[in-house]
Amino acid sequence: MKIHLFGIRDDRQFRALTGMSETLSGELSWVFGEIYEEIQEKAYKKSVSRGERKRKRGGGRKSKLRTESEKLPLLLYYLWNYPTFDVLAANFGMSRSKACENFHSLLPALKETLSRIGAMPRGRFENVEDMRTALGEIDQIIIDVTERAHRRPADNEKQASMYSGWKKRHTVKNTVISASDKAILSVGQTFTGHNHGYAMLKSGISPGHDLVRKYKCSGRLGISGN
Are 181 and 141 in contact (CB under 8 A)? Predict the structure, then answer.
């Protein structure tokens, strides 16, 4: 399935903007579409039962995003690039408010899609055994911290907490655990930019001595689970 977005000419450009190939995105859009319809139908029936909906489903102004192959790239583009809603709106030919509305209405369907196909990263491990069970046959993991820009808060205390000395800007961070083939296994809770990666790891998981083989951060090889 070919997906035309921003006048993209080839798969390389699509990957650069969404982090995913057109082919894989097309395959994912089938499952995403079914789940999105389930969610919409459930919401419609609920609103009818409450007497909040009189118009039949599908009535009213038509969305700019008519098909799943148009809806999914909006989510992928936002999650990959983290643009402002003004930028998202400009690239998808809609108003800022509609871009925000579309993103938040579509995101639950993507989360459910990833859960159903077994690709949704874990948020937290309760204990070492829980982590061993989740990893299954994987005997080598890579742990790193991902950091993304955040607008500077007006409050001085908040902006100080979000300032990252490493990036020289205001950021938020998450600990990410992946397999050696780059499959993401876990995304930890979000921390503000001033927090250190090792402290984030220790507060979010208890990996155990034999589970951690590599920590992709200088000086962090061989950390323990104590």
Answer: no
Q: What span, in angstroms and rounded, lies between the C-alpha atoms of 52 and 63?
A: 21
Does residue 170 carry a pLDDT above 80?
yes
Residue of higher predicted confidence among 215 and 203: 203
Structural domain spans, the chain: 11-116, 128-215
Q: Which residues pair with 146 in a beta bridge?
A: 174
pLDDT of 222 above 60: no
- Give 13-25 pLDDT, tens digit per residue: 888 888 888 888 8
CB 124 within 8 A of CB 134: no
Token pair belonging to 111: 């989360």
Chain-centroid distance of CA 90 in Å reads: 21
